[in-house]
Design a protein that fits this description.
The chain is globular and about 55 Å long. β9 (194-203), α5 and β10 form a beta-alpha-beta unit. The protein is 19% helix and 21% strand. The strands form three sheets. The protein has a six-stranded parallel β-sheet. The protein has a two-stranded antiparallel ribbon with strand order 1-2. It has a two-stranded antiparallel sheet with strand order 5-6. The protein is an alpha/beta fold. The chain is built from five helices and ten strands, in the order βαββαββββαβαβαβ. The protein binds pyrazine-2-carboxylic acid and zinc ion. Zinc ion is lined by residues 75, 77, 83, 107, 110-111, 136. Zinc ion binds next to loops. Residues 1-21 form the signal peptide. Residues 31-224 form the Isochorismatase-like domain. Its EC number is 3.5.1.19.
Length: 232
């Protein structure tokens, strides 16, 4: 079971039970680290670079040994994808449009399948990662979430994979906090997982207050906000 110990339990440390370190969260064999979209497109020099995005890499590399299970995601769009402003005549990046499933933020062309821009950041060192799930590959639909596409119906298969492997708790990291990390974390709750977001292992885009809103929405759905120093 996962331990979120109290200060009182921390006293047990004095008796040699160091796993009970005060206030620490210890990943179990039924926990998975999800590393969202740490790809060149979202890193320095990428087509949709997230400010400070590169700073998550050493944090995630350092967290990895604490996890028996690691899953990565890749934003993986077709050329001419519906989420690209360039696909919609007269539209500019960061404006919105209405698509069949609702309002869509329009982005610069990014993370196109098979390009170097879509490759996983080369400084990310996760040799033990067990699955890379690609998302956003349907031309007419976006997928911020690693679990469900933007219609909130089409599954990516990740919930089935994690459940099939006995995973109960997920720790979400990566880019961007207010889009793919937040949607992944909230859908993980919806799918019945216990969910932590490790804040210093994420960076946000913060479009019109989206970062503060994402934390508010995640908290309301029972997502727990922690720091990498909280991991035992
Ligand atoms: C993302 C915008 C567009 C993300 C992906 O990974 O957060 N954001 N596509
Ligand atoms: Zn995208």
């Amino acid at each position: 079971a996962l331990l979120k110990s109290t200060a009182a339990l921390g006293l047990l440390g004095g008796f040699g039970l160091s796993a009970f370190a005060a206030g620490k969260v210890k990943p179990a064999s039924t926990s998975a680290l999800i590393v969202v979209d740490v790809q060149n497109c979202f890193l320095d020099g990428g087509t949709l670079a997230v400010k400070g995005g590169n700073e998550v890499i050493p944090v995630i590399n350092k967290l990895a040994p604490a996890f028996d299970n690691i899953v990565m995601t890749q934003d993986w769009h077709t050329a001419g994808h519906a989420s690209f402003a360039s696909t919609h005549p007269g539209k500019k990046p960061f404006e919105t449009t209405k698509l069949k499933y609702g309002t869509q933020v329009l982005w610069p062309d990014h993370c196109v399948q098979g390009t170097d821009d879509a490759a996983v950041g080369k400084e990310l060192a996760l040799p033990t990662a067990q699955l890379i799930i690609r998302k956003g590959f349907h031309k007419d639909m976006d997928s911020y979430s690693a679990f469900e596409e933007a219609d909130h119906k089409t599954a990516t298969g990740l919930a089935g994979y994690l459940k099939g492997r006995g995973i109960k708790t997920v720790f979400v990291t990566g880019l961007a906090t207010d889009f793919c990390v937040a949607w992944t974390a909230m859908d993980a709750r919806k799918a019945g997982f216990e969910v932590y977001v490790i804040e210093d292992a994420t960076r946000g885009i913060d479009l019109n207050g989206s970062l503060a809103k994402a934390w508010k929405d995640m908290t309301a759905k029972g997502v727990k906000r922690i720091q990498s120093s909280d991991i035992a």
